[in-house]
Amino acid sequence: MCETPSRERTLVSRPYDPHSFEEKWQAVWEAERLDAAVEDPDRPKKYVLEMFPYPSGDIHMGHVRNYSIGDVVARYFRMRGYSVLHPIGWDAFGLPAENAAIKSQTHPATWTYGNIERQAASFRRMGFSYDWDRTVRSCDVDYYRWGQWIFLKFWERGLVERKKSAVNWCPGCKTVLANEQVIGDGVCWRCKSVVEKRELEQWYFKITEYAQELLDDLETLPGWPDRVKTMQANWIGRSEGAEVDFTVCDAAGEPTEQTITVFTTRPDTLFGCSFFLLAPEHPLVREFTAGTAYAAAVQEVVQAASRETAVSRTSGEAEKLGAFTGRYVINPVNGEKVPVWVSNYVLMEYGTGAVMAVPCGDERDFEFARKYGLPIPPVVVADDDPLLGELQGVAERIMTDVPWTEAYDGPGVMVQSGAFTGLRGGKASEGMRAVTEWLAARGQGRFAVNYRLRDWLISRQRYWGNPIPVIHCPECGLVPVPEADLPVVLPMDVDITKGETLADHPEFYNTTCPRCGGAARRETDTMDTFTCSSWYYFRYCDAQNSSAIFDTAKVAYWMPVDQYIGGIEHAILHLLYSRFFTKVFRDMGLADFSEPFTNLLTQGMVKKDGETMSKSKGNVVAPEEMVARFGADALRVYILFMAPPDKDLDWSQEGLEGIYRFLGRLWRYVTEVAEQEDAATGDEGATALRRERHRVVGKVTEDIERFQFNTALSAMMELLNAANDYHRTAAPDVRDTALEREVAETLTLLIAPYAPHMAEELWREVLGHRASVHREPWPSWDPALAQAEEVEYAVQVNGKVRGRVSVPADADSATVEAAARADERVAEHLAGREVTKVVIVPGKLVSFVVR
RNA sequence: GCCCGGGUGGCGGAACAGGCAGACGCGCCGGUCUCAAAAACCGGUGGCCGAAAGGCCGUGCGGGUUCGAUCCCCGCCCCGGGCACCA
After folding, report:
1. Could you read off the pLDDT of A658-681 as tens digits, one per residue?
2. How far apart are CA A438 and CA A154, in angstroms?
3. Between the CA of residue A43 and those of A40, A487, A558, what are the distances in Å?
């Protein structure tokens, strides 16, 4: 701001016309490499990142919002003197490319790269300040080869597994899905088809090995929204309890050597176990019932369960079905024989697929017991339950049913529980610990923790993805591709329009075993695209490295990401997978931190008339059209002004026009001030304007720091309004033109992160500076100058505002009170009454309590 | 059912820490300029009563704490999201 404005400006006052300069500056900035990230050990760094976009081609308002937020943050930090990394790239593998290819008879690569070009052009047109040299595209072999390398490293660490189990099959995408990718009422996250269950052999990453750490470390993320952390914690679903071993009896009812282990969170209720359940898919079901009189009824339950899976879960609870297997197991705490049933409400996927049923304490067991007439002996009774009078201190079982209409799972007194009778029962109770310790001492049980989180199924039966680098050898079994043989290149000559995948491509899958040299077959599944997006932010730190995944020193400089911005829809999916990858990278020595994203901002959706914009609804507002009419700056400012970033935003054309007018007013003010002759200095109004200038700079700074871009912009509007009022009302011979110029420059600097093109045009062409506004330091402010010398106090009498008085800012409370009492209206309300209390809030208000 | 958010003028939203509710913008109304309109600029704009001064009411509903509650507590209603037979 100390530069001498150049006097040979040719541009005289002209109206705001964004089209005359926006693209000009975009070209200049790129030529000047204004936004290149530079590792500077002498400066603090900020890594600002928005979520990896899928190259769908057209940009939509959601993109505009996501990337505008990130751009303001990146530009602001640059002006604050940080070394900033703000990269972009494309999550370029995935199914839509295949679908589009089939539809338009083109290759997925053609479609994808074409879309990337179009989208990059749109991003450039929006003026987003990326370091384009760091662009990564996940379908480039230079990128995905490192994804294969990661697979091999995970393999070495025992984090890769191939196993057969019931998996989610999406009939729409014709591939399997990970659990996280089945959302809502059992539908595919991408195409919303109802997902089916299939028994298949698939590849997994063992994310469950990190379940505890993924849960615990949520507490190290104060910069994440609680909502996201809660969702992840629920997804991981840790429960504490015990494993209990039940001895299996043979068909004749005699004990055998065999045991079945169950997981329970309530070992204190073991004395209330009146039956035992197996999941329909449990392998023992067949063993127990084959050839017996029970087989038919049991088979009916098994069949019914296999029909209902996945689909019938959609609404409410499924009907509980069960059948007795004819077998018994022995309850280790009391030696009692308990009948084994099969029921559809027991899940094979959770715990051991077997459950001890305690109907008095578990609602599902209660319902089942009532339906099939099984006993419900009470064992944990609430302190105010009338039953307690009868059962308190009774160790033997004297009661096998309860007068209840539902199970009781709260805390209470243990009854009918042998040696444990009288202890406190309930979740995390002394009774639970005592029973578990007793079992552990006999080797019939132990403390245990269970998670809802399942291993991550990463194989996909699709073409357009990263090939899994494994070879199936008939002699050696599963053999990983040697590191030296990477990359396994995705062949381009697959005829996708015929629906071919790698499994239809003998030139790809016919190979030799790297171990024995014999004929072998390549794995033809590709990896889940979420594996690509789980580490791209590492690659940005060293995007062009051809000899290693990245230089760890560069990662140490830039990572972790200081501010991550993206949609809430990835609360579990991408954000959980990325946390997992980061922890494994740390254990591999590639990173010295445990969490990739220090601060997370989840932005809201952009809607139209309360509905999500979609082509099928025909309510899409195209960003390109708005840019063509109002310019990129107006669109950026509008979308940041209309709502706080984490809330949904409803599109309003009038709102955008209002912002365009605001930018026009700002433009006019700065151009008028820039052109006026220097004149007199100072009058009463100048002091107020100067104060407003300092107040607003402070306010805008605070607001950006807490992502309140809407109120930051409001404050700028306030300053502009004040500046315009002054400009209009102050007499020309006393108007402080130096101050006006300072205000004009301040406003230009403050708006620069939001409206970068206009700010640059004003700064360089109108205000006459040589260097870019985006290289200027952020304006400073003096809180003392922002302070008014007079402060207005509201005066309340019995809680109602009865007057306002102005007093000097440094007045003591006695002075303030006296001024308040002196106010005419206040005096009226105080007249003839007794003041019992006076409260003075400095700088704000005086409150009289009267009787 | 459980767990998170949220409910403020005609609309989007503001009030950061219990202290003047409605900043800023949109819309609307009135005015200036114009032959006229648009644009631009200026002024007004929570509701009710009142000529005005002023008064009363008002942040989903009902209670409570407090000199004072959009904010804290208790009990509800509605909207959005997540999870949902997880033993």
Report:
1. 999 999 999 999 999 998 877 767
2. 40
3. 6, 38, 12
The Å distance, CA of A76 to C1' of B64, is: 46
Residues A396/A385, Cβ–Cβ less than 8 Å:
no
Tokens of A59: 């940009």
Task: Return the nearest residue to B54, CA–C1'.
Answer: A825
A316 nearest nucleotide via C1' and CA = B84
With distances taken from each CA to the C1' atom of nucleotide B12, the closest residue turns out to be A642
Q: How many helices (H) and strands (E) does chain A have?
A: 26, 36
Q: How far is the CA of A265 from the C1' of B2 (A)?
A: 17
Nearest amino-acid residue to B11, taking CA and C1': A652
Reported as a single tens digit per residue, the pLDDT across A94-128 is: 998 998 888 888 899 999 999 999 999 999 999 99
CA of A776, C1' of B42: distance in angstroms: 36
CA distances from A146 to A462, A466, A591, A661 (A): 20, 10, 16, 49
**What's the ipTM?**
0.95
Dihedral over Cα of A14, A20, A25, A26: its sign: positive
Burial of residue A442 (CB within 10 Å: 0-12, 13-18, 19+) is exposed
In Å, what is the separation between the CA of A703 and the C1' of B14? 12
Give the tens place of pLDDT for each residue, A291-339: 999 999 999 999 888 776 555 544 446 788 999 999 999 999 999 999 9
Residue A328's DSSP bridge partners are A339
Distances (CA, A) of A62 to A221, A532, A640: 26, 22, 12
Each as own residue / partner, the long-range contacts of residues A784-789 (CB below 8 Å, 24 or more positions apart, any chain) are: A785/A690, A785/A691, A785/A694, A786/A691, A786/A694, A786/A695, A786/A698, A787/A691, A788/A691
User: Gap from A506 CA to B85 C1', in Å?
Assistant: 46
Tokens standing for residue A206: 């063992």
What's the pLDDT score for residue A308? 67
Residue A796's beta-bridge partner residues? A801, A847
Beta carbons of A88 and A94 less than 8 angstroms apart: no
Q: Give the DSSP H/E element, type plus range, for residue A340.
A: strand A337-343
Q: Output the distance from A823 CA to B20 C1' rounded to whole Å.
A: 16
Nearest residue: Cα versus C1' of B15 = A711
Measure A655 CA to B13 C1' (Å).
12
Q: Which nucleotides of B are covered by protein (CB under 7 A)?
A: 3-5, 11-16, 19-21, 23-27, 39-43, 54-56, 67-69, 81-87
Tokens of A794: 């509201």
